[in-house]
Amino acid sequence: MGMRSWVRAMKCQLLVTSLFIMLLGVSVGILAIITYNGKHFTVINSASSETNSYYRNFHNIVFYVGICLSIILAMAALMSIVATIKELEGAMATCFFCFAVVLCASGLATYWTITNSIVVENAMMDVYDFVYEDVRSNISSTRRQELYSIHKMFLCCGKKSPFGGTSSIEDEMCASEIPGTAEEDCLQEIKHFLKKHMDIVSVLMTITIFFMIYGMVLTSFLWHSIHHKSNLDQKGKYVLARLSETGF
């Protein structure tokens, strides 16, 4: 297979890869929006207070980081398509840089998801614990409504005591307000929900890392090809200019 055939094959692969990267950008953006505006996360965020500032910070940071990654992925995909079709050397180098930035960010996000999922899980359960204990110690209509909203969203009710007993909250709320959920422990339901969400994030970040590495390989190869072709064209123009100066 000649050099031109290799370049043509790499161009086709980069165009297809760019389309997948565009879809990844959309997926990351949708996941960030779901994390920020999803009903399960929103009900926990609205119940969090100043004593649970970690979860609120996590809630906001994840959204902005996800949106930034989504924008960078979409821009890099569009730029790589244009650079591939028009053979733009500078745009191809910019695409390589964007892919490298997203690769680093995706790697950090994957590492953070693995190492800090327990921290986020504890933060969400702390929010529930705070509301639960507040309702138990102080009859507040606002707190009671927040606790009811959490029970309704996660299809659970109360906490299972290690001693097997039930508190006044389970006796009052579970059987009457949310039938059929009295047996579900809210702490376990929150834990299961967050684990599923974190698994989706890990899979999406792993796919992103793969496409970023593959995109960097393709863009570096095509940049070298475009750069080599540009040098040959400049040499040809230089030779023609010298010949015209000498009168041949």
From TrEMBL:
**Pfam entry (one):** Tetraspanin
Q: Which residues form the signal peptide?
A: none
The primary location reported for this protein is membrane
What UniProt keywords apply to this chain's record, in alphabetical order? Answer: Disulfide bond, Membrane, Transmembrane, Transmembrane helix
What kind of membrane protein is this, topologically?
Multi-pass membrane protein
Gene Ontology annotations for the cellular component aspect, listed alphabetically: membrane
Location(s), subcellular: Membrane
Q: Which family does it belong to?
A: Belongs to the tetraspanin (TM4SF) family.
Tell me what this protein is called.
Tetraspanin
Q: Where does this protein come from, organism-wise?
A: Python bivittatus
